[in-house]
């Protein structure tokens, strides 16, 4: 059974924090941030919480698909910044959206959360257990950033991206997903604490592991990198994306980048990128798109999608 992206949506907070603003907060500069990360701005939530951002992104996806909210069978929300310990943020979203028939749950896999959720949602549709699945990646990382730590506060932003999946002519071809808890100390946030990161070690792991996952999923399903129309990597750092493209042998125009506008939005990164890539015409019917991410856990993987 085919699985199609019926609708996509995204939302970011109204307030935009520029690099020049960060110059007044910590010992950094616009030039330093751009040269090392590629980020020029990020959106920071002041009044909008994760529920509001998720509602806006989800509503956009549902409206694009022209699907009634009571047709949604399941809601999966990927996040590491939930509204509360429990209930699941997805349950709160279900109430706000009015998707009364849907069951809802969260996925916690850091920056790889959207790929993990995509694997679950597509499997439910392919098995006939669900006909329409709403998948959201949403984060308010500004709540767990140490704004005195110049090595991390320049990197992260808030936002939400949503996709409505259903039966159709498209295909979530398959994934190669991995976890390795032995690297948990490379990127983490303890309960009631802020993000801790070993940047140099993370950089090396991210490039190697994402490239390996891309090669594996292509090999597993009988494709080559030449078959891929567009690669959408997790938007963590522009230098990571450049190094990944070089490792995969890809030209710049075949790799989607929007980190300069939003920074690292963790689980929201890939769905926001998918939405913008579709709006700009980079993803069309029959496009073969390779998604890849790595995040704290460590979690990482790659997913091949035929739109």
Mean pLDDT over the full residue set: 96
How many domains make up the coordinates?
A: 2
How many H/I helical runs?
9
The CATH topology of the largest domain corresponds to Peroxisomal Thiolase, Chain A, domain 1
Helix content: 25-40%
- The residue ranges in which pLDDT falls below 50 over 5 or more consecutive positions are none
- State the secondary-structure class: alpha/beta
Rg, nearest Å: 18 Å
Compressed to H and E, one letter per element, the order equals EEHHEHEHEHEEEEEHEHHHEE
Strand order of the largest sheet: 1-7-6-4-5
CATH homologous superfamily assignment of the largest domain: Thiolase/Chalcone synthase
| Number of E-state strands | 13
The CATH class label of the largest domain is Alpha Beta
Indicate the CATH architecture of the largest domain. Answer: 3-Layer(aba) Sandwich
Q: What fraction of the residues are assigned to beta strands by DSSP?
A: 25-35%
Report how far apart the termini are: 14 Å
């Amino acid at each position: 059974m085919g699985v199609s992206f019926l609708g996509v949506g995204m939302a970011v907070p109204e307030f935009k924090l520029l690099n020049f603003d960060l110059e007044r907060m910590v010992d950094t500069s616009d030039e330093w941030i751009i040269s090392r990360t590629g980020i020029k701005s990020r959106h920071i939530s002041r009044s909008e919480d994760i529920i509001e951002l998720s509602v806006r992104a989800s509503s956009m996806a549902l409206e694009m698909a022209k699907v009634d909210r009571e047709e949604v069978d399941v809601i999966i929300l990927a996040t590491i910044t939930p509204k509360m310990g429990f209930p699941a943020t997805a349950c709160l979203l279900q109430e706000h959206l009015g998707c009364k028939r849907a069951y809802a749950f969260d996925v916690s896999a850091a920056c790889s959360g959207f790929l993990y959720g995509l694997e679950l949602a597509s499997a439910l549709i392919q098995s006939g257990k669900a006909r329409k699945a709403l998948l959201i990646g949403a984060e308010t990382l500004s709540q767990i950033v140490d704004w005195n730590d110049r090595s991390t506060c320049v990197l992260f932003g808030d936002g939400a991206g949503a996709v409505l999946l259903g039966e159709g002519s498209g295909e979530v071809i398959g994934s190669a997903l991995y976890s390795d808890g032995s690297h948990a100390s490379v990127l983490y946030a303890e309960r009631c604490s802020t993000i801790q990161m070993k940047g140099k070690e993370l950089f090396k792991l991210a490039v190697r592991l994402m490239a390996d996952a891309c090669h594996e999923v292509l090999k597993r399903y009988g494709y080559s990198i030449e078959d891929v129309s567009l690669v959408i990597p997790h938007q963590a750092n522009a230098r990571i994306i450049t190094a990944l493209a070089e490792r995969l042998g890809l030209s710049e125009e075949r790799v989607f980048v929007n980190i300069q506008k939003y920074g690292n939005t963790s689980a929201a990164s890939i769905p926001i990128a998918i939405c913008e890539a579709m709006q700009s015409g980079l993803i069309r019917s029959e496009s073969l798109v390779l998604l890849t991410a790595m995040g704290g856990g460590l979690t990482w993987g790659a997913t091949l999608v035929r739109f």
